[in-house]
């Protein structure tokens, strides 16, 4: 009977959603840490960037993407996008999931990042670099206050970093000006900052320049490995979800933009070739 029940469960991949290419930096780490699972990546490239959009629009777009990934069989979806996690995660978890399917889960990237801050920062002064949407939501400030009320969090919006990455200019000379400008802006807010949080999944693509202009001794946190370790822990604590995940070690890719265009830039993020399919979102 138990066997018959188990075989009746339909297995599906872990859905990974981002507004565009940034979530691929998270997917890369997920596949390193949890290689046995299947993944279905969805990039809403046609409507990216999300960073400067309003709460209502980001919430609507993110919900459409989550529904799409559910419709394609994902029991669990990771919002591999800080902007979507900041603006849409709570509403989707509390308002939409109970109505859509209470047995499925949607998780974000902010909590796993904040959880380890006490282990990396000595001064307790944290600098958050993110999109205008993530910064305006104050999600990092609020989440950090809950876990570590003694810490001081300063934020800097970096509106041009995502367009620089999405236009393949991350290694270009023009990027230096804007990387330096936002880092200087952040340090002016609090010179005691000893830890930078790269609170946007696109920013690891700018890591060389960020290291170049960060003050000596500042630690730079990338989220991929943090999110991957957190998911591993989550699946250990939730065997009922773990059992619903298919295990073939494959990754498939969907984009709301032109797949050829997606594949060309996506390979830069994944360090391997990508073949995507088009998926209309609305
Ligand atoms: N990669 C997304 C994030 O982590 C933002 C990119 C965008 O602005 O669309 O916030």
Description:
The model is unreliable at 1-6 (pLDDT under 50). The chain folds into two domains: 11-109 and 225-278, Rossmann fold, CATH 3.40.50; 111-222, Rossmann fold. α2 (23-33) crosses α13. The strands form two sheets. It has a six-stranded parallel sheet with strand order 4-3-1-2-9-10, sandwiched between helices. It has a four-stranded parallel sheet with strand order 6-5-7-8, with helices on both faces. It has helices at residues 2-8, 23-33, 55-71, 82-87, 89-100, 110-114, 117-120, 132-137, 139-147, 161-166, 173-189, 207-213, 224-237, 239-242, 259-270; strands at 14-18, 39-43, 76-79, 105-107, 125-130, 152-157, 195-198, 219-221, 251-255, 276-278. The protein contains 15 helices and ten strands. It is globular. It is of the alpha/beta class and 282 residues long. Bound molecules: D-glutamic acid. D-glutamic acid binds at residues 18-20, 22, 48-51, 81-83, 131, 134, 162, 200-202.
């Amino acid at each position: 009977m138990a066997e018959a029940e188990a075989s009746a469960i339909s297995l599906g991949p872990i859905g990974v959603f981002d507004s565009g290419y940034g979530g691929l930096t998270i997917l890369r780490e997920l596949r390193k840490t949890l290689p046995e699972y299947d993944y279905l990546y969805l990039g809403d490239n046609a409507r990216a960037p999300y960073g400067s959009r309003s709460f209502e629009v980001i919430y609507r777009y993110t919900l459409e993407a989550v529904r799409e990934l559910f419709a394609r069989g994902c029991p669990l979806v990771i919002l591999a996008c800080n902007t979507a996690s900041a603006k849409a995660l709570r509403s989707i978890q509390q308002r939409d999931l109970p109505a859509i399917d209470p047995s499925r889960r949607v998780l974000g990237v902010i909590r796993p990042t904040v959880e380890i801050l006490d282990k990396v920062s000595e001064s307790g002064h944290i600098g958050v670099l993110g999109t205008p949407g993530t910064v305006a939501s104050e999600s990092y400030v609020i989440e950090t206050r809950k876990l570590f009320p003694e810490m001081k969090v300063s934020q800097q919006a970096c509106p041009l970093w995502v367009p620089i990455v999405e236009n393949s200019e991350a290694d270009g000379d023009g990027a230096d000006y804007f990387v330096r400008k936002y880092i200087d802006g952040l340090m002016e807010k609090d010179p005691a900052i000893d830890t930078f949080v790269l609170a946007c999944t696109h920013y690891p693509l700018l890591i060389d320049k960020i290291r170049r202009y960060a003050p000596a001794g500042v630690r730079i946190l990338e989220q991929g490995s943090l999110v991957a370790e957190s998911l591993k822990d989550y699946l250990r604590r939730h065997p009922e979800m773990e059992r619903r995940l298919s295990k073939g070690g494959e990754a498939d890719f969907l984009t709301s933009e032109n797949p050829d265009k997606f594949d060309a830039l996506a390979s830069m993020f994944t360090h391997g070739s990508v073949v995507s399919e088009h998926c209309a979102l609305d």
